[in-house]
Write a structure and sequence with these properties.
It catalyses: (R)-2-hydroxyglutarate + NAD(+) = 2-oxoglutarate + NADH + H(+); (2R)-3-phosphoglycerate + NAD(+) = 3-phosphooxypyruvate + NADH + H(+). With 416 residues, the protein is an alpha/beta fold. Bound molecules: 1,4-dihydronicotinamide adenine dinucleotide and 2-oxoglutaric acid.
Length: 416
């Protein structure tokens, strides 16, 4: 059933997974006081109970927002992913319920690139094993299998925001960079795109994965691909756990085909810090294992908190959906002294004319109208000079194919 907006004190916001305080502060400064801020993710049933009266939810990579959760979240107006990946959200289910999803596409990219570069050096020097031995009272002073990074070839699979940053940092250290991407991209510095993943695997001393979780990237690195890699090369995965067949990687490390690996993301990750981490890579001393912390630096988290809360506030106050990952993107001007209505509907012919008919029948004069559509959904924003009456709102809710309507307070804050 379509809904209209509430005043800010009644807008309930649920933030999960230890989202940075910067998000809370930003929301409070914007007048949103009804905030629940939890440090953990929630299991599906607890989440379903909690989201029933929530208008905005903020999550990171662990919380699964599936169709069942969306079905329970009747009041949910927008989702903020305080991270880059949005594979944990059923974006289609959100869209067809008229819910835009936002993320932070840039704020933690540098943190991931720095970690990968550090791991490259650590693995080229065999540090995980040497450090473990020293902790055990051993002394592995040897140059065997220890290499400088200078002059080695780094192969980056997925040359997006993270891959390109890694490319720049690595070249400054003297690595030669090649990359493979499904899109033709201009290389940073002297980095060169190669024509196939096979070519990259055959040429690189270190392979680092920076692709999103997509049907086309699932298990893209397994036995067959590892066989193409150079003897004694290194694999790094800080993208998604679904990209590497982990048992097959474990076999390649045990057999000595690969010199080492650094893995930050896993097919199955603990739901919280209290749950045991189970992996076939445990106990292998040529592997750096990290608990999905590629983007977990204070700098990145603070920036993400600000960036995503800003997007939620802007959508809530103004209706702007720019940078939403699933929704028609509309950039809206401020609306002083105007009443603004957001109408989200199935993208089928005739809805807009029906909306305009209702407005005209209710003697409502349009002062601004903004429309954007994608294949499934239409999003029209209508500014008018006088308040929408209850009768007009009711009629607009009942326009066929309506998914949701929201009447926004204008900046001068007159009644909705
Ligand atoms: N470990 C962590 O804490 C973090 C992990 N990530 C993961 O890293 C991924 C990449 O992040 P960004 O670089 O910001 O994303 P991006 O969207 O900027 O870049 C991804 C690149 O992969 C390419 N690509 C897509 N499918 C491909 C395929 N089959 N083969 C080769 N290239 C392909 C795209 O064309 C694009 O250039 C995110 O989707 C996220 O899953 C992101 C941040 C933190
Ligand atoms: O820090 C997080 O919670 C997730 C980081 C990540 O994987 C992402 O940004 O996609």
């Amino acid at each position: 059933m379509a809904k209209t907006s509430l005043d800010k004190s009644k807008i309930k916001i649920l933030l999960l997974e230890g989202i940075h305080q910067s998000a809370v502060d930003n929301l409070l400064n914007a007048g949103y006081t009804n905030i629940e801020h939890l440090q953990t993710s929630l299991d599906e049933d607890t989440l379903i109970d909690k989201v029933r009266d929530v208008h905005f939810i903020g999550i990171r990579s662990r919380t699964q927002l599936n169709a069942r959760v969306f079905a329970a979240a009747e009041k949910l107006t927008a989702v903020g992913c305080f991270c880059i990946g949005t594979n944990q959200v059923d974006l289609g289910a959100a869209l067809t319920r008229g819910i835009p999803v936002f993320n932070a596409p840039y704020s933690n990219t540098r943190s991931v690139a720095e970690l990968v570069l550090a791991e490259t050096i650590m693995l080229l020097r065999g540090i995980p094993e040497k450090s473990t031995r020293a902790h055990q009272g051993g002394w592995l002073k040897s140059a065997k299998n220890a290499h400088e990074a200078r002059g080695k070839t780094l192969g980056i699979i997925g040359y997006g925001n993270i891959g390109a940053q890694l490319s720049v940092l690595s070249e400054s250290l003297g690595l030669d960079v090649i990359y493979y991407d499904v899109v033709t991209k201009l290389g940073m510095g002297n980095a060169r795109q190669v024509a196939s993943m096979q070519e990259l695997l055959a040429r690189a001393d270190v392979v680092s994965l920076h692709v999103p979780d997509l049907p086309s990237t699932r298990w893209m690195i397994g036995k067959e691909q590892i066989a193409l890699m150079k003897q004694g090369s290194i694999l790094i995965n800080a993208s998604r756990g679904s990209v590497v067949a982990i048992e097959e990687l474990a076999d390649a490390l045990k057999s000595g085909k690969l010199l080492g690996a650094a893995i930050d993301v896993f097919p199955v990750e603990p739901k919280g810090n209290a749950e045991e981490f189970v992996s076939p890579l445990r106990g292998l001393d040529n592997v750096i294992l990290t608990p999905h912390i590629g983007g977990s630096t204070l700098e990145a988290q603070e920036n993400i908190g600000i960036e995503v809360s800003e997007k939620l506030i802007t959508y809530s106050d103004n209706g702007t959906t720019i940078t939403s990952v699933n929704f028609p993107e509309v950039a809206l001007p401020a609306h002083p002294d105007k009443h603004r209505l957001l109408h989200i509907h199935d993208n089928v012919p005739g809805v807009l004319s029906e909306i305009n008919r209702v407005l005209s029948e209710n003697d409502i004069n349009i002062s601004g109208q903004y429309l954007q559509t994608n294949a499934e959904v239409g999003y029209v924003v209508i500014d008018v000079d006088k308040a929408y009456g209850a009768q007009a709102l009711e009629a607009l809710k009942h326009v066929e194919h309506t998914l949701r309507i929201r009447a926004l307070y204008s900046e001068s804050n007159f009644d909705d």
